[in-house]
């Protein structure tokens, strides 16, 4: 299982006050949750790209505080119409 290295855990108390503009699953930050986000997340995980707090929250589509392959599958479900499950 691939897991992205996080600069800060998506649910750390110290980062909970940070406001992130992108909606759950909008990994590319273009305002839409679509196939481009699935591809971008797959590349991030494959290259082990460090994620900042906001990107980690946006990419953590399972809401478990970890960005990994499970988030790609959940992001695909969101693109297909399932409700987002990102942590607030």
Your description of this structure?
With 88 residues, the protein is an all-alpha fold. The chain has helices at 35-46, 53-59, 69-79. The chain is globular and about 30 Å long. The relative contact order is 0.27. The model is unreliable at 5-15 (pLDDT under 50).
State the low-pLDDT regions, or none. Answer: 5-15
> Over the alpha carbons, how many angstroms does the gyration radius reach?
11 Å
Number of strands: 0
Count the DSSP helices: 3
Biggest sheet descriptor: none
Form type:
globular
Distance between the termini: 25 Å
Mean pLDDT: 82
Helix coverage percent = 25-40%
Helix/strand order, N-terminal first: HHH
Our estimate of the beta-strand percent is under 5%
Structural class: mainly alpha
């Amino acid at each position: 299982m691939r897991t992205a290295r996080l600069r800060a855990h998506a649910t750390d108390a110290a980062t909970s006050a940070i406001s992130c503009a992108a909606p759950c699953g909008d990994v590319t930050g273009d305002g839409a949750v679509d196939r481009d986000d699935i591809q971008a997340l797959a590349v991030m995980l494959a290259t082990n790209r460090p994620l900042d707090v906001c990107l980690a929250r946006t990419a953590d589509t399972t809401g478990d505080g970890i960005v990994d392959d499970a988030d790609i599958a959940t992001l695909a479900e969101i693109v297909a119409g399932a409700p987002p499950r990102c942590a607030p």
